[in-house]
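For the sake of clarity, the format in which proteins appear in this thesis is described at this point. The fold follows as a row of integers, each naming the local backbone shape at the matching residue. One such record is shown here in full, so that the layout can be seen directly:
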Amino acid sequence: MPLIRDEPGVLTISLPQNASRTVVKATIVAIKTVLRRGARFVLRIDGTELRRGDLTFIPVLVKELRKAEPELRSFLRGTAVVVGSASARCILCAVLKLKPPVAPIRVTEDPLAAEEFVAQLPV
């Protein structure tokens, strides 16, 4: 299961090494729960434990999040994703080129760069 921290204005999801269907479902439920509150938030995803083979969940996650696109446009301030490798970053960036996100996003291997990105997002 993912480790989920739901703090005011920030939803942090730390994905485990094996991103199963259960992990994807828990991630989607967490995001939809925050969206139902109707308050702006930042999404931080820690994918440093993921390996290349674990990235197969990304299309499923993107498909599910498309269903919530109107709410995401209204409430998601931005997303910071920390990945564990350059190959994971490249794969995720390729997916994002196919379906651009509704809010600013930063995909990086550097947790500090992710935090700096989150800090500069508008309230």
In short: Residues 17 and 50 are 5 Å apart (CA to CA). The chain is about 45% helix and 25% strand. The longest helix spans residues 21-37. The domain at 3-116 is CATH 3.30.750 (Transcription Regulator spoIIAA).
